[in-house]
Amino acid sequence: MLALDPLLRPRSVAVIGASRRRDSIGGAILHNLIEQGFQGPVYPVNPNATHVQSIAAYPSIADVPGPVDLAVIVIPAAHVLETAAACGERSVKALVVISAGFKETGEEGLKRERALLEVVRRYGMRLVGPNCLGIVNTDPKVSMNATFAPVSPPAGRVAFSSQSGALGLAILDTARRLDLGISQFVSVGNKADVSGNDLIEFWEKDPGTDLILLYLESFGNPRKFTQLARRVARTKPILAVKSGRTPGGSRAASSHTGALAGSDAAVNALFRQSGVIRTDTIEELFDTAMLLASQPVPAGPGVAILTNAGGPGIMAADACESAGLTVAKLEAKTVKGLKAFLPAEASVRNPVDMIASTDAPSYEKSLRLLIQDKNVDALIVIFVPPLVTGAPDVARAILAGASGSKKPVLSCFMGSHGVPESLRSLQEGHIPSYAFPEAAAQTLSRAVSYGVWRHKPPGKTPTIQGVETERAREAIAKSLEGVKPGESRWMAGEGAETLLRAYGIRTSGARPAVNRGEASLVARSVGFPVAMKVRSPDVLHKSDVNGVRLGLESDEEAARAFDSIRAALTKANPGARFQGVTVERMIQGGVETIAGVTRDPSFGPVVLFGMGGVTAELLRDVSVRVAPLTDRDAEEMVREIRGFPLLDGYRGAPKANVASVVDLLHRISRLASEQEEVAEMDLNPVLVFHGEAPCVALDARVRLLAGVAA
Predict the structure, then answer these.
(1) Cα separations (Å) of 417 from 48, 177, 380, 423?
(2) Start-end of H helices in 205-296
(3) What pTM value is reported for the model?
(4) Which of 228, 519, 559, 637 could bridge across to 513 with cysteines, CB 3.0–4.6 Å?
């Protein structure tokens, strides 16, 4: 027996708070259990009635005559604790607490919820909720609808977890309207005990579930989610909608990396690394579920478009290209086969436009030919209803033509979302249907991206050589001397230099100077030409205060540059503290990039790479991943930015040392994973050189947060 079996496959259910009134929550739950045909005894618990909805009722859980696996509690929050304890004494194995009035209401509710969880753990029970809609299992061996929803979803092989009860009502209604079969549905509510991670782990082993859908408002344990999803998504697709796409966190960030790698970017990175398909809306979630619940995952991006009208075919082609798909070039034998029976006016190039007068048999013959084309990975079949051919006939032809196909087939009956009554044969034959070509193309694009992820081998975290973890800890501890827990401090130049060198990160070797004479001496020691930059704990971006001088060729130029930088700081920020300058050898050439890390409160360290320099935030050409990085993560980060051609021999230039960038990202990932006080780090710019020379960080900013490490 699995840990959640008493919850999702109970042999008996008690409804505590069952009501004789059908329009009450307790009454609706009892009615739904009976109406669904639950395959076990149902015990209404109501101290004020001997019978509820024609079933014998009991005054308390202690009076129920038989064993109880699951108790559904629908009573005021003030009485839930004692009732939960009574369930524990009665050896009930699982609870679904529908009642509201817990942490969602404030501090008192939070205390009540913690006390409830303590009771649940004391008796070894599992808990869904509180503040939830309930649970569903359509397996004929269970047939349980323990929700107060007014509709029941059709049976199928799609499991759904929703963090919102109100949204859960809409989800069940939409599933019925689209005829998307549900295996199990769980409204997790406040997630006091059972979470999305628990459900993913349970559904991984559930033979009745092929596809997992999630509506998330928050993550409880993102690292566990990543580990689970990476494993489960290799055999069962996971689709998710994550709400809360606010830019507020990015606005509050102080570094380039913090601004570019906000919480929503971290969510995207987490999902991408885990193979989770993210959609922006519930509608897109259902669109994608209709495809993956019924069709094979596409092997590649090549799409064939079959239509009886030119306009929608062109729209579909544009939508495919925009979504990252390719309109496949048809083989010569396919084109020849189409010409053999289609009218002379038809276009037999992709998109294949059979023209409005085409009949249903032409759909079937064309579809069979396109499926056999080796350049085609998926098909979108469009039908615009003319007067001469009926939609039901075309639907049957599509089913016949797609029979036995190992490539996904999507249909688009213009204006018909889901599967209308006249096209029910499509649903029976597992062909998803969409109202417009754009929705079909976008849905297919998500499935293709998932297929690419699934077919690549899982990455491994490489072993990094030349790391001095303790030396780095000492540098951090020295920088945080006198800083109170919860407060932050930017590392001084020397401290940041020590930290980076401890992890083998190459820098320009900047040296400090506190007066004009020392600046000249240091410049001569470094060797002309040199670069000089302002040192101030009150300046985040040096170029913003005109605090950088480049290409200094002599002692005199170095001294004048020192004076000029001090005057520029005073003018730009009169209150800023001037602590001198740093002097470093002038390094020229290469491509300016940015690398860094920010620590997300939910996901931990998030590593960033992209095009750098002063325009980093303007261009926003970056990629992010959640640490620790695998070899696959780091390679993808470098290659997926728009500016990657500049590193890959653009217009005949020599290729840059991309391997050194990948190595740098792994070192940043390890640094951030081991040194938990590092809240933000910017290496900008990082010069990536053409040829074999390794990349070098020309400037570094590291913000520490005291009292973070365990």
Answers:
(1) 48, 10, 15, 11
(2) 222-232, 248-252, 256-260, 263-274, 282-292
(3) 0.86
(4) 519
